[in-house]
Structure formats: structure tokens, C-alpha cells
Amino acid sequence: MQKIIELKNLKKHYPVLGGVFRRQVDAVKALDGIDLDIYRGECLGLVGESGCGKTTTGKAIVRLHKPTEGKIVFYPSEEGTTAGTDIAKIPLNALKQLGIRSKLQMVFQDPTTSLNPRMLIKNIIAEPLKAQHLFRGRALEDRVMELLNLVGLTKDHYLRYPHEFSGGQRQRIAVARAIATNPDFLILDEPTSALDVSVQAQILNLLHGLQLKLNLTYLFVTHHLLVVKYISHRLAVMYLGKIVEIAKTGDIFSHPHHPYTHALLSGIPVPDVEHKQQRIVLKGDVPSPLNPPPACRFHTRCPFVIDRCKTHEPILEDIGNGHRVACHRQAEVEKLVHDRFGKRSSDNKAI
Amino acid sequence: MSKLIETIDLVTNFYTHEGVVKALDKVSLCVDHGCTFGLVGESGCGKSVTVRSMMRIIQEPGKIDGGKVLFYPGNNGSETAIDLLQQSEATMKALRGDKISMIFQEPNSALNPIMSIGEQVAESFLFHRKKEMSQQILMDMDASISKANPLKSILKALYRLAATRPEALILKLFSKTPLLKSWENRLHKEAMRRAVEIIAKLSIPHAQDIARRYPHNLSGGMKQRIVIAIALACNPLLLIADEATSNLDVTIQAQILDLLKDLKQKVISSVLLITHDLGIVAETCDRVGVMYAGNLCEVADVKDLFSEPRHPYTRALLNAVPRFAHEGELESIEGNVPNLVNPPSGCRFHPRCRDAKSICKDAFPESTKVGNNHQVACFLYTEKSREKS
Fold first, then answer.
1. Per the CB < 8 Å rule, is A273 touching B276?
2. Is A197 close to B253, i.e. CB distance below 8 A?
3. B147/B298: higher pLDDT
4. Planar angle of CA B13, B14, B15, nearest 5 degrees
């Protein structure tokens, strides 16, 4: 498979200023060394709790902020003949001149705040096209109309303002804006978390359809594991600025190897009455990214902690079939969970 | 089981500039003693308005225009019912936080940022338990071995008055005057002691220390626990949890749900849980009500609702929820939630309903009984029952 984006030891530290001279006294380590390959045509789900650095990863890839350290390599061609460009350090206008800007787009979390309330829908969708000088005049109008049809809206919606639409329709407009420039790679930052259940299903189906139709690659950032299950091929689980597990979606659900993934999976309430399951309840809260725990960052809340976890940091190692885990006890976790908490929910295929 | 609280044909409207928003249209539901009742629905369907109408805390453009809210504080039978909508504001104040209490949606905005955690929890004791606490203080004073002095005897007289008539005018006067208001010190101390006790009960470590802190020092999950502590302070008969976990992370949500389940067994008798997550309902509730656009469309026991959903909306909602074992495309409900200024005529779900008939457009379906404790408001079932009879 072709790589499209490759993250190498990506770090983003937000400075904390203090003292009389407002010097940097500390840093919030939002991303602390992430390695991630994203392949062309796939949908990679990025899951974790709030504050673990999911959105920061997405924003770093589209260069909404400058990463502190590391590389973001973008491979533009479909054949994979040319070498990739490192977009972590190059200036923003170069990004536009090289035509990379139009290939990487983003859909934001809350459609009510991501659309300008004083702009017409046609202007909102046409804005990226104008900025990239891709279309003009009548052709621009036709393109906007085509995009509206693609996301399931009609030409009645062309001359309206965002407040006239419901949440689901607004998210459709945001998607239309993101796919306007014919991107290769789309970052979806919690696209459904502000929506209701019935509308959420509409948007998920729309995104899935668009991916097949336009041959897009997605990075789907979300905190809800079940939502991402529908659409993603691979899943990466993050905890406090690090990736702790990455595997094919099916493998994560059937054979998770990291205790945190186990806890996340068992924490989802299942809409089924027959289903009685022992839940893994983690003690305490997510530690502050200002002072993340040393060694394994999960050791303060892990139910299976051993001494080694407090002194040595586990590396993300491959355990076959593209399944990578960062845990010292990954080989025995499944048995440990089974012994202490009983049968796991996803064993129960009947539901 | 005996009834605890019941609403009959509750109607609430909001008078806005764009017109009258008919937020609740004849909602009738009933929560029994010892039952966990779940109220589900999408945003804007009137879940929160229902419970706020029950507590009579609807804000300005809103008005309760009809119906009854019957509350049965006694444990046996309906002879002691009081209609909360007819009560004076003073009685409602005494009830709120004492007999009925509520956990609000967002812990960030529910807590006062300039009061310490302990003070905020102690507030409900000072408000509802003045009598009881004064009596206890009197007993403590009698038991103490220090010598009697005139100041102490005045204090004693004040507490004796507080123990019998806590709303006496002279006490209010004392509390408002500088220097003299220090008579309440012991009361505050006692309330604080109780507050720390209840905080510790909710498995929060270092309760003493936490009580002295301010909301911004705590994490989201911790704040939600404090809000629960405030709600539970006076051992309420009914605890209303309005989206208590929807802003929390999965692992923290698991903690809070565990805590609520635990408390349900030990302390509180009934819980009215408002949520949009059907998973939470399936795990914690005994009975469920499904709401759509200001109507209650289905009420049933949890098992019946999930195994045999009757109303087309309930069925569609259950199909739209992502599940572990499900493969392929999600089923979605076409269209959008209607604007309640101009709700659809007849059954409010008919524009999105797959089984809609001509009658659905014209008439409002009455809630009919299908099976054991199962009520549906849909013409699919009223006609069937008519044919049978």
C-alpha cells in the first residue's frame, strides 16, 4: 500500500509563560513523539479521551500550528514515484505554492462555530476554491452546485445563511467545503459528536459514500469507539500524547492488547438489556499533560501495573499483522482482564 | 409499586419573538418509588423542559400552561398527593433540594466559581436542615463541661429558637447585622462537618482538603461528583439527573455511572435519568420513556422496549445507534427534527415516519396500552385494538 502521510516523532509542546519577562517556564506536552503511517485510501480512526492530543495531531498535519519537533512527510503522487515532502517546517506560503494546501483539508467538530454566520452558503463553499484560484465565474458556480449535490443538499440551499439549517445540514455544508478543492486527505475532527443519534448515522453514511466515490483518505478523530468502527479500517488509540495501540479495526475490537483499550471498550454503555458485563472502571483522572507520569504514562491508572512500568517506558512494538502495542505486559493482558473482570464484551457476538 | 411523582397532560410553551414554541404537548409520565426512570430523546425534544416543569424552574419566556404534577411524598397510597403546580413558591423552595433534587448538565456551570466546594455543599444543609442542626448543637452545648457564662446562655436561647422556629424574625435580624451574625458560626461549622462527611461518602479521597478548594482546582469527573454530593445532601426521595454524564469521557462516565448505581441501592429511592444515550438507559434504568418533539411516544419497561420496540420512532432510534456486533451501513432516520414553533399537524413524527398513513397527518394519537405496562402513542396500535374489539 502507498503511504500518503507519515509522522515521524512528531511533538507539539504548548509553552506556559511565567515570571516578569513572560519567559517560558513549562510546557504542556500535548503530543510527545508520535509515529504514524497513513496509507492511501484508508480511513484511520484516532481514539482517546479529551486532552490526549487527538485534535492536536490533526491540526499539526494541516499545519494549523507548527509542530515543535519531528517530521510530517506528505507523498503527493498516486504512483509513489516522487519522494515525499516534509511539511512540518516549510513556510505556509510555500505550502500553498506547492499545491499541498488543497490536498489536505479538515472538517471541524462543531458546525455551528465552524461556519461564518454572515456568509452565504455559496460563498462559504466557494471560499477555498477562490483562495486556491481553481475556478472562476460560471465554472465556480457550477462547481459549488455540484458539491451541494454531492453532500445531499439541493440548489434551494444555495442562497441561504448557516442559521437557517439544522445541525446535520450544517455539517454537510462543512463537508462540502472541505472536499471543494479535490483533496486527497481529509481530517475529520469529531464530525458527529455535536449531532443527534439519528442525524449522526446520516453523516457517517455520507462520509463513507464520499470516501468510495472520491477516493479519499480519512483521519477520523473521535472519542467514541463505536462510531469509528463503522467507517475506519485501522484504529489508533492515544493516551496523554502517545499512541498506545494501533491495529486493524477488527483486531482492536476482538483482541485488544493494551489495558487502556480494554477499559475504553468496556466503558461504552451497550444498548442491550440482556447484555450484563463487568465493567473495567479506571481509578482517578487523566493526569495533567504538564507533568505526565514518568515511564509508562498509563501506570498511575493501570489495574495491572508492575514495577517495570514505573521505571521503563514501553515502546510501540509490532506483534504481527500490523498490530502494534506499547505495553510491557501485552502478552498476558487478555488473560489478566479475563481473570479479573470476566468475559469481554466483544466476545459476546450475539448482541 | 406506589407512585412517587406523576405528570398529567403537562403543557409548557415558550413565548419567543418568532412565535410560541410548543415545547411540551400533553406529557404524562409516572415515576414509581424505588424505580429508575430513563427519559430518552434527541436534543430539543423536551426532556429537560419536562423535568424543569416538574421542579417549576422554567425560565422566563417559558410558561407552564396546563396539566398537573402530582407528588406523593408518603410511602403508601395516593391520599397524600400534592399538585406541585398549585403550591406557593416558598413550599417549592423547601421541596427543591430536600425531597426532590437535581443534577445539572454541566458541572462547570452548575458550581459557583467563587465559593469553596465545602461551602457549596454545606449550603443545602443550612437551607433545609437548620432545625435539626440547631437541636444537635444544643445537645452538644449541654453536654460540654465548660462553665456557663452570659454570652453562652444568649447563644443557647438563640439556638433553642432556631430549633423550634428557624424562620423567626429576630434570627434573620441577627444574621443580617455585622458582629451579631457570628451566632451562626456553630451552625456553619456543623454544616461543614456534614458536607465533608457526604463528600467522603462519594469515594473522593482527602475530603477535608477538597472541601477547602474551589471548583477550578478539580477535574471534570470530580466536579460532577461534587454536584452529585450537593444533590444527595438531604437524602432526596427523587433524584433527577439531567445528562449527568454526557460531557464526560468514557472512563470517567463509567466511574459516575457506577457511583449512581451504588447510591441507588444504598441512599436514594428513585432516579429520573435524562439522557440521549440508549446504552446508559439499557444499563441503569428500569423503565424508559421515549420523547420526540415534545411528545412522549412510548413508555415501557426496559426489557420490553429493547426487545419489542413498538413506536416507529423508537425502532428507528434503536437502529441508528452504533453497536459492537453490527456490520455494514447504519440505518438513519431521514429528515430533521421539526421546528416546534410550527410542529407538524397530527402525530409530530409523521413527516419522518415510514409507516405514516393519512390519519397520522390529521389527528393526534392518544397513548394506548399494548401489553404489560407498555404504552404507545401511535395509530398503528390504536387501530389494531379497535379491530380486535
1. no
2. no
3. B298
4. 115
Give the residue-averaged pLDDT of A314-319.
89
Q: Do A281 and B329 touch (CB under 8 A)?
A: no
B174 close to B183: Cβ distance less than 8 angstroms: yes
The closest CB to that of A346, out of B43, B253, B324, belongs to B324
Q: Give per-residue pLDDT as tens, A66-82.
A: 899 999 999 887 665 66
Looking at domain B1-111+237-343+371-378, its CATH class is alpha beta
Q: pLDDT, tens digit, for every residue of B182-215?
A: 888 888 999 999 999 999 888 788 888 899 999 9
Q: What are the sequence ranges of the domains in chain A?
A: 3-232, 238-343
Q: Is the dihedral of CA B68, B71, B72, B74 positive or negative?
A: negative
ipTM: 0.78
Q: Where are the domains of chain B?
A: 1-111+237-343+371-378, 117-195
Note whether A201 contacts B332, CB cutoff 8 Å: yes
Cβ under 8 Å to B: A residues 110-149: none
Please determine, looking at this structure, whether the domain spanning A3-232 carries the CATH number 3.40.50.300: yes
